[in-house]
Specification:
Length: about 775
């Protein structure tokens, strides 16, 4: 019986550590499985072309991706002739693609990639299922894949109404195919596309050898990609979708790891404190500090290994179930599937082991210093709640977190959010480490009015003599409340700032905006009275400087650069610059103006952009007259349009927010429940003494409930303070970027909600072991 009781007690001590590590490993294994499964893939439309040629790269863009220029028509002719010198290459087929959408349908996200030349259907192995290939402009072969809306109810000889960058068009269906999209004649596709950046090769013989020979023939005219390397041809729009999903997965891994360290550290610290007498006996029996440390490391490593072997398969099994929802939410491209990734499972188990050992390190070091005389002590009072190492680490975390917040306004926009999260994690760590310093004064302040009552006195003295226990309970609450305040407040603050920024960009009272389409056609724009911008991408060269820049076309605008673009190029007003436009054409223009308020890094006459980027779409028209009806467009007030833009991003941000808060709350539930279950179970002699002194079961429950609520209050107060302080840094960074005042949003309702949840968990966790003690029930 005694042995079984010891085993049961030891299991209860490690149960929370086991569950926390298992959950952390499951989160990491599932997230990394999804992340590795989401690596770029060769486009499906190139499945029958094992060797592809990509246009030359000219540096990298703003996202760190290769900047690919288009081939000119003359270059395409030369490249095709060059490749045909190798008899193993049976065909070299360019793949121009363009925007086309069935009129009246919603863009599923692929409309800008759905138009192709009929010859490129061979690259995907697509065949005619009825009718004939298109023979002239205005004829089209329509894809009829199951579930596709493109070819719904179409038959050869009929007509379909579509939207293109030109405007509404009526096409004659010459045939249907078993592939997705719309296929027109080669000449028509080339005239509609914004250049050609890929060419597929149909080859005979060894593909690797053919690819090597083709690269030798082409030299610097293109990059040959074979097999999996064709993933580099994945469209940028699809890659950006994968990037969004990747950010959520990375955030989950980071937060999961951080929370696991917190839970393991607090649990191990409490376990070591409760085993002080046991460790003292070991020391009295001759155990060295090193042996005590190794014992604790071995115990934690064993628990972590078992938890990892439980959590990794669980995470890997859940990952495929999350693939569908992530695709539906626009975080992964259509057709995404989670596949088995051994590296994810193995790495998650290893990470769980490392995190567990990191969490137990401080507790093991402290436990190894327990003096042998501790075995003779029976007092419940703690010796020292704050050690020199705890002071040093706590103050260092405060300094580093504050320094990050101060530096945020001067950081690059892309790293400000990461810096804010890092600062918050450092400050939360500091709050947990320094919590014992403020627990005493807070407890005295809160319990002052009830000091005269018996329950108040017991709660007050029990809490003050168990500061470390209270700190261990408060730590996970601190993390949850702090992260909730920071994340929800940051989203609300940025939402308001985004609304201010978007509204400032739209001086007009009414705008014409896309409706179910990725942009406005030229016909929709020309039907209105107002101004608009036609976005494109250009390669700019001046002297030895070459850079890719976002550009916009504006009616009657002079060639203009922003000061930043002018600095990158070393250009100024009056400088001649060379432009390589979307279709690959190179032209020379003179910079007429350098303007800090320019609509884009490079501003060009709209006619020039339209002529060389026939597939470009307009984002919005600032109306100066009454709106006129146009396909794929609708009129909105400027305010409504700005709110819709913010809301589109806000929905995605809200998803990120609630996933991360839910993950944090899950860890808190484990940590609070485990810590209080352990602490309450270990106080059995104390509760027996209360019963012998005349306290009933109700009195004991009131004491434990009050202590649990007090610990929750301390954690929520510290967490709210850290979250609010971190928010001030975020607001300062946003204000500095926009140059306007932004209100600080403190999410009181969210903070109160998670605090109430933590309080409920704490009360339940303390009541369960009390009610299970039969000697208390008598």
């Amino acid at each position: 019986m005694i042995a079984w009781a010891m085993v049961r007690h030891r299991f209860a001590s490690f149960a929370g550590t086991f569950v926390a590590i298992a959950l952390g490993v499951a989160v990491v294994a599932g997230s990394v499985t999804l992340y590795l499964s989401s690596r770029p893939q060769p486009p499906e439309r190139y499945r029958a072309s094992p060797v592809m040629v990509q246009a030359p790269s000219v540096g990298t863009n703003n996202y760190g991706e290769p900047e690919i220029r288009s081939w000119t028509p003359a270059e395409l002719t030369t490249i095709s002739a060059t490749l045909r010198q190798d008899p193993r290459i049976t065909a070299a087929i360019p793949d121009p693609f363009f925007y086309v959408q069935r009129q009246g349908s919603e863009d599923p996200g692929s409309a800008q990639l759905d138009g192709h030349s009929w010859s490129s259907a061979a690259l995907g192995g697509y065949r005619l299922t009825a009718g004939a290939a298109p023979a002239k402009k205005g004829e089209v072969v329509v894809g009829t894949l199951p579930g596709s809306t493109t070819g719904a109810e179409v038959t050869p000889g009929g007509t379909i109404r579509v939207l293109t960058s030109i405007g509404p068009e009526t096409w004659t269906v010459s045939g249907t195919t078993d592939g997705p999209g719309y296929y027109v004649t080669g000449g028509d596709a080339l005239a509609r596309a914004s250049g050609v950046r890929a060419m597929g090769l149909l080859v005979q013989g060894d593909q690797a050898q053919v690819a090597g020979a083709a690269q030798t023939l082409l030299g610097a005219s293109g990059t040959v990609r074979a097999g999996p390397d064709r993933a580099a041809l994945e469209p940028a729009a699809v890659t950006r979708i994968r990037w969004l999903g990747g950010q959520l997965l990375i955030a989950m891994v980071t937060l999961g790891t951080f929370a696991t360290v917190f839970v393991v550290a607090s649990t191990c610290a409490l376990t070591a404190a409760q085993r002080r007498r046991e460790l003292g006996l070991l020391r009295a029996g001759g155990a060295t500090p090193g042996q005590v440390r190794r014992m604790m490391y071995a115990e934690t490593a064993l628990i972590a290994l078992l938890a990892g072997l439980t959590g990794a398969p669980l995470g890997a099994a859940l990952a495929p179930l999350l693939a569908g929802p992530m695709t539906d939410l626009g975080l992964e491209p259509a057709g995404f599937e989670a596949t088995w990734q051994p590296l994810a499972a193995g790495g998650a188990v290893l990470l769980g082991l490392v995190v567990a050992l990191a969490g137990v390190a401080v507790a093991a070091r402290r436990a190894s210093r327990v003096p042998p005389l501790a075995a003779l002590r029976d007092a419940a009072a703690e010796t020292r709640s704050m050690t020199p190492s705890r002071w040093i680490l706590g103050l260092l975390s405060v300094a580093l977190g504050a320094a990050l917040l101060v530096a945020m306004p001067s950081m690059d926009t892309n790293v400000k959010t990461t810096a804010g999260m890092g600062a918050a994690m450092l400050l939360l760590t500091a709050g947990a480490l320094l919590a014992p310093v403020v627990i005493g004064p807070l407890v005295r302040l809160v319990t002052g009015p009830w000091r005269g009552s018996a329950t108040g006195m017991v709660v007050r003295e029990g809490t003050l003599t168990g500061v470390r226990r209270v700190a261990s309970t408060a730590a996970p609450v601190l993390v949850t409340v702090g992260m909730t305040v920071l994340l929800t407040g940051m989203v609300a603050t940025i939402d308001e700032a985004s609304g201010i920024d978007e509204a400032a960009k739209i001086p007009a009272g009414t705008v014409l905006a896309p409706h179910g389409t990725p942009g406005l056609s030229e016909a929709a724009v020309r039907a209105q009275t107002g101004s608009s911008r036609l976005g494109t991408r250009v390669l700019v060269e001046h002297g030895t400087a070459v850079t890719g820049e976002d550009a916009t076309g504006v009616d009657g605008a002079p060639v203009t650069l922003t000061p930043e673009a002018a600095k990158r190029l070393g250009a100024s007003a009056g400088s001649p610059i060379s432009l390589r436009l979307a279709d690959g054409t190179v032209t020379s223009v003179e910079v007429l103006k350098v303007d800090a308020h320019a609509a884009a890094p490079v501003v060009l006459p709209r006619e020039l952009v339209r002529r060389h980027d026939p597939d470009a779409l307009t984002g919005v028209v600032m109306l100066s007259g009454e709106p006129r009806a146009a396909a794929g467009a609708r009129a909105l007030t400027a305010g409504d349009y700005a709110r819709e833009l913010v809301a589109e991003e806000g929905d995605l941000v809200d998803l990120f927010l609630w996933v991360l808060i839910g993950l944090t709350a899950g860890y808190t539930a484990i940590a609070v429940s485990n810590t209080l279950l352990m602490a309450t179970a270990a106080r059995r002699p104390e509760f027996r003494a209360l019963r012998l002194a005349g306290a009933g079961l109700g009195h004991v429950l009131r004491v434990t409930t009050a202590e649990a609520l007090l610990a929750t209050f301390v954690g929520a107060l510290l967490g709210g303070a850290v979250g609010g302080f971190s928010l001030t840094g975020v607001r300062a960074a946003v204000e500095q970027e926009l140059g306007v005042q932004v209100a600080l949003h403190l999410p009181w309702s969210a903070a109160i909600g998670v605090t109430a949840l933590c309080a409920l968990l704490a009360v339940i966790a303390t009541a369960v072991p009390v009610l299970r003690r039969t000697e208390l029930a008598r």
